Amino acid sequence: MLVRSGVSWDKTSDVVIIGYGIGGAVSAITAAESGAEAIILEKQSPETKHNNTSMSGGIYITPPDVQSGLEYMTALCRVAGMPNMLWTDRAIIRAWAEYAATGRQWVEERGGSIFPNPGVGEHPQLPGGAMLSKHRFRGMGIGLARFLDDQVKAKKVSVLYETRAVRLLTNLRGRVVGVEAETTQNGQTRRLRIRASRAVVLAPGGFEYDEETKLNYLRVYPTYFTGSAALTGDGIRMALDVGAQLWHMNCVSARLVMKFPGIANAFTPDHLGKAALGKGPGKGDEAIPVTSGYIIVDGDGRRYTSENIAGHALYYELALFDTHRLVYPRVPSYIIFDRRRLENGPLPLVTSGPAGQTGIYRWSADNGKEVERGWIKTADTVRGLARKVGISAEALERTVKTFNRYCEKGKDPDFSRKTKELIPLESAPYCAVDLWPGGPNTQGGPRRNSRGQILNADGKPIPGLYGCGELGSVYGMLYPGGGGNITEGFAFGRIVGENAAREKGVS
Questions:
Q1: Which of 161, 303, 308, 463 has CA 20 to 30 A from 245's CA?
Q2: What does the pLDDT look like over 51-76, one tens digit per residue?
Q3: How far apart are CA 161 and CA 338, in angstroms?
């Protein structure tokens, strides 16, 4: 939206940041440390901690050095079958590697409590992948959010809560000079014009809860997400309004999730009952005994993928469309398990997401409340379960019998399931839950360069406008694993904060 000289401003700051997630917070902290005044606009209230930061697992992925990070990120961004085509520019890949490699040091220098977490990123077969390490914030997502809050307060960054950015304001030369926002105080809504004398940073998150945008850009619909319901694509609309170019719009960090009526958020299944068995700091997947089994089947009652799930890429397998029946046969899919898993603790993850510390939904310890609600379907026989679910009884019974036979032999010739997970389904009641495409977050949004500047349709920077976080993420089709967007939020939050603070003031 064009504003002319002489406009009346309600507030002024050197840098105005839209969104109080990781990218927004880190960019504000960095701008303040670079000598600029910063202000954050956050549309949720200060009491609401239901953002993707607090709902996350608080994991940070760390390459041991720049070269390893560069190798891994380049391989991650390479388009399959086209070695010279990359989802992301090489200069951006280098910037990610340089800042990701020093991110842990940046956190610790500011008093952040972060400790090693067993495991590496996803796709360790890629060059440099096995070198990545994971660290976790003490207190997980809540601890991460608390660390950022403390730093924002220490740097005297102002946060305007219940203030939703509506549009970007530009001058006659096309430079972004401010933000128009709506604020709610004492039940009354009014408009604010907030001037940015140096730059505006777009960091409001993705479009996980914007149904129209998901329908038009994602590879399969419906897709449900486990993060904050406040992420409704505001940044997409604001960026398009000033001529921004979009990228990575069909890319997501996603898999199979559970979605139930009356709850906005989806839930990530804890397939093996790891949460109930004490998964936590210092305990890797291999150290946890597996005492219950499960399989995943499609609408025809057949297994179609390895249950050794790539946690943030399985989504792409769900986009298979049957052009004769005109359906997505894998949407929904179904997790099939028996009494042992039912008794093995809450079915979803309770370390993050809506069943985690944010308390959006309190899942019962024995899954009994959810069985009563009909979210978990049960039956005394596999055939009876199939009828309740609405799939072929013959097909599901055949699939379960075949899987049980593989368990007896200790080998899965169809999908190479991990041997320790080959536990037969033989203890009634047999159970099923609908599974839908979905996961933590979208990745698409306005395209940025290695300095974090948002680009227009011609690939040139829009003056005075920067972006960071999952809105226009640097990740393409593949995602580096749990904590990838946290790593990116810290890396590009720092990049953007430094560069925005260096912008020349605009009269």
A1: 161
A2: 889 899 999 998 999 999 999 999 99
A3: 46
| Amino acid code (one letter) for 97 | A
Give 201's strand partners: 17, 466
CA 364 to CA 349: how far, in whole Å?
A: 12
Domain containing 154: what range?
11-194+206-251+443-502
Residue 278 pLDDT class (50, 70, 90 cuts): very low
Amino acid code (one letter) for 319: A
**Do 134 and 59 form a contact (C-beta atoms < 8 A)?**
yes
Cα dihedral sign for 151, 157, 162, 164?
negative
DSSP strand E in 138-283: where?
158-160, 163-170, 176-185, 188-202, 224-225, 246-247, 252-257
Q: State the Cα–Cα distance between residues 326 and 275, nearest whole angstrom.
A: 38
The three-class DSSP label of residue 482 is coil
State the residue for tokens 């390893």: 68
Q: Which residues pair with 35 in a beta bridge?
A: none
Q: What is the pLDDT of residue 354?
A: 92
* Residue 6 counted as domain residue: no
Same domain, residue pair 152 and 19: yes
Residue 136 confidence (pLDDT) above 60: yes
Q: Please, is 47 exposed, middle or buried when counting C-beta atoms within 10 Å of its C-beta (0-12, 13-18, 19+)? A: exposed
Q: pLDDT (tens digit, 9 = 90+) per residue, 120-134? A: 778 889 998 888 999
- On whether both 38 and 181 belong to a single domain, the answer is yes
Same domain, 48 and 142: yes
Q: Are the C-beta atoms of 481 and 61 separated by less than 8 Å?
A: yes
What the block records as the tokens of 2 is 């064009």
Q: What is the pLDDT of residue 46?
A: 87
d(CA 29, CA 259): 36
pTM above 0.90, yes or no: yes
